[in-house]
Amino acid sequence: MKVIHLFVIILAFALINCKNEDSSPEKQTPIAEKNIPLSEEYNWRNYDDKIAFGEVLFVPVYSSIYHQSERTFDLAATLSIHNTDLHSQLIIIKIDYYDSDGNLVENFIKEKVELNPLGSKQFIIKETDISGGTAAKFIIQWVSEKQIIKPIVEAVMISTSSQQGISFKTESRILSSIGY
Fold first, then answer.
1. Taking the mean position of all CA atoms in its chain, how far away is CA 124?
2. Which CATH architecture has domain 38-178?
3. What is the reported pLDDT for 38?
């Protein structure tokens, strides 16, 4: 009898831990990949025919956050882009910084930035720069000539003023992709 109970418990545990492959984040298709058009600013037709793969990413960034009712706490933010591919480079073609109202604050790069395999690049919003407001964001567009492992793109916010420290991170979301 004990053997049957043990078998039932193991079977139940195995069934609970089974994952449906279609529900994994890698298998889910973001809404924007279903042919929802982006603005001409981030249109894939603007680039040469060699570009076969790439993404437009949205990264929320907070240069200040609310605390104690209406007061804000200013934060420094670091946008980090990590090429996770072991063998191929990726090319960053746009990094645009928008404020809480969706207005363009700054184009962070004027020319393409090439990231070597396993290379990383950081872009800083100083703690004193509150131009983005409490709900700023980056829009990043990267490309490659062949299929690569997708980069990790995230922002880290931090402040240690007034004997109080705070830090947290946000991750990118895919708005559009080509080739994947």
1. 15
2. Sandwich (2.60)
3. 56
Tell me the C-alpha distance between 85 and 92, whole Å: 14
Going from N- to C-terminal start, the domains of the chain cover: 38-178
| DSSP notation for 8-73 | HHHHHHHHHH---GGGSTTTPPPGGGTTPPPPGGG-GGGS-TT--EEEEEEEEE-SEEEETTTEEE
| Residue 4 DSSP symbol | H
How far apart CA 98 and CA 111 sit, in angstroms, is 19
Q: What is the pLDDT of residue 45?
A: 65
Contact by Cβ (8 Å): 179, 54: yes
What pLDDT, on the 0 to 100 scale, is given for residue 70? 82
Q: What is the pLDDT of residues 140-174, one digit of tens each?
A: 999 998 999 999 999 999 998 778 788 999 999 99
Residue 80 neighbours by CB distance under 10 Å = 16
Rounded CA-CA distance 32/56 in Å is: 10
Is the pLDDT assigned to residue 87 strictly greater than 60?
Answer: yes
